[in-house]
Amino acid sequence: xxxxxxxxxxxxxxxxxxxxxxxDPGKRAGAISVVDSFDVDGRDATWEVALPIPVVRxxxxxxxxxxxxxxxxxxxxxxxSKVFRxxxxxxxxxxxxxxxxxxxxxxxxxxxxxxxFFQKNFDQELSNLEAALRRDLGLAA
Length: 141
Description:
By secondary structure, the protein is α+β, with helices and mostly antiparallel strands.
């Protein structure tokens, strides 16, 4: 089973300011609650992810690689591990009042329970991303 999720945020902020946050793999990783730690190497990152599912007893190493970048509009990445594969895309669009950030993710689980976890928790993880970005921008949540 594959989990797909898309969510859009609106910000009273310039495109370039939102881009600075969303194009930074460390800032993106830092906003995800199940990422225990991460190391950034340029535009790529290694995440140590703690999934609270029975078959995963330790953190899972996820190697993320940026696959596309069109500043200041679009960044895409792929993360791979023994447990799941995730594809993410963030697109920043200018609006009359600032900008909107369109977030799309696809997770393919490789062991039982992974898709169920992400299906149940993706909305909260995206809320965490939005809150981190609002804090970074100095905007109210």
